[in-house]
Amino acid sequence: MMNRALSALSAALAFAGAVLASATPAHADPAAPTRSEAAERFDRAIRLVNAGDLSGGLAEFQRAYQLSPSTVVLYDLGLVRAELQRPVEAARDLEQALADAAALKPEEQERARRVLAEQREKIGLIELVAGVKEGSVEVDNLEVGRLPLAGPLQVATGSHVVGVISPGYAPARREVVVAGKQTVQVSLELVAIEGLLAHIAVHCRVPAADVFVDAERVGKTPLVATVSVAPGAHQVEVRRPGYASAGRAITLQGGSRGELELTPTVDSSALASEGGYLAVLASETQAVVSVDGTEAGLLTGPLHLPKGPHRLRVERGGFLPAERDALVPLGRTATVPVVFEPTPETRVSHVANAERRRTWSWVTIGTGAVLATAGSVLALAEHSRISGLQRDLDSVNADFAPGAGGSCDPQTDLHDVLASCNARFSTASSNLSNAETLRTLGAVTAGVGVATLTTGIVLLLTGDDPHKYDERPAELRALAWRVVPRVELGGMSLSAVAAF
């Protein structure tokens, strides 16, 4: 489900820039810094969602909405929450967005209604009857209301722990399973106690693990709030399939608070039946990965992990750490891409090195071209002379043929003529040898030039792009407007909104 969510939300979600477009210039608008932060928050949320960190992106979306409320942001928040399997919150956001449907495009209104209908199918109701008149009501250890309740509790389909915490009484909890559009009645009777309640804060790095207190499930990790208990001794345990459970005993006085760090360890023997694989595709080599706060070492291949959600942190020297949410399927492999963002120092160093290599590549190409051209010209020029020089040498040799009657016939007794002939032979032979040497030199120079030229081209083609780490804009900007690809659960569209 997580991979499908990341695929569906792989492009930028639109922000409500149109609401801010009519604002006065920043120097005259006291709210401009707030709008500026809202834009920055939303841009950061876009990057996180596109990268696969839905939880981090959701937090930034929420902050952006706090700074600059917008119907379009609510619409996007509802879509992200739907992908995070939070139907109650997603339905609330989409209902509120549709209350101001005029702020949405017709196709967005249609998608909002469709997704809202899907989310409502995943919501059930709990009618709670408690034996006390006052107290807080919890679902999965999170307070959702106060007694008396105005109506039934809305919850996502599945198993939940419903509890009531009231001063002077021991907490009462019950686990119930709720189906979509089903109403379940829960009756809780609280037992009076002496003194104040105690509280246990359970810290666990493994997400989605069940927390038990005295063999009674109280919620799933991460527990945002403490677990309220009666004073005395308690056994706390954290369990999740694929892990060896972690537990500890704790004794608390009334009104006191205890802290427990309980993190189950992976049970290698259980991975065959309770595990799957996670392939992390990192943009840089030599990356180190941590899973749920525990370092797994150098990334060399798929990770064998227990099924279910995990929180990844991938690090590489010179780059900002990347965090991702991942869902490991049972017996199958999930893929998580990680594109590292360099630190400012790495970015500057990369650009300098890439530009330096590109400069030397062109210098090498130019030098090779000059050498290849000069060598070729020299070799061709000397080659064209060699045939004539060879004829000159052959003519001298013919004059030296004994008894042939040539001017340099050695059988003659004309010593002055022979001395001149020897000089002619030496000159002709030297000229031919020099031409052949120059031709060879030209050919070698041309060969060196071609090799140098080839090396320069290879260096240029294999060198890094100086703009490799330049930030790619989330939108294609056109004047004061932005063309925004908007991807939701049902497909993608393009819309133009006013820039900040």
* CATH architectural grouping of the largest domain: Alpha Horseshoe
Helix content class: 25-40%
CATH top level of the largest domain is: Mainly Alpha
Mean pLDDT comes to: 84
Number of helical segments with 4 or more residues? 10
Count of discrete structural domains: 4
How would you sum up this structure in a few lines?
By secondary structure, this protein is α+β, with helices and mostly antiparallel strands. It has helices at 2-8, 17-21, 32-51, 54-67, 71-83, 87-99, 106-120, 271-274, 344-399, 415-462, and strands at residues 123-130, 136-139, 142-146, 153-156, 158-165, 172-178, 183-188, 198-203, 210-213, 216-220, 227-229, 232-239, 243-244, 246-252, 257-261, 265-266, 275-282, 288-291, 294-298, 303-306, 308-315, 319-320, 322-328, 333-338, 341-342, 476-478, 481-488, 491-498.
Could you please describe the fold and organization of this structure?
With 500 residues, the protein is of the alpha+beta class. The chain has 4 domains: 2-121 and 471-498, Serine Threonine Protein Phosphatase 5, Tetratricopeptide repeat, CATH 1.25.40.10; 123-268, no CATH class; 272-342, Immunoglobulin-like (Sandwich), CATH 2.60.40.10; 345-462. It is 39% helix and 30% strand. A 4-stranded antiparallel β-sheet has the order 3-2-5-6, with no helix packed on it. The chain has a 4-stranded antiparallel β-sheet with strand order 10-9-12-14, with no helix packed on it. Strand 2 and strand 3 form a beta hairpin.
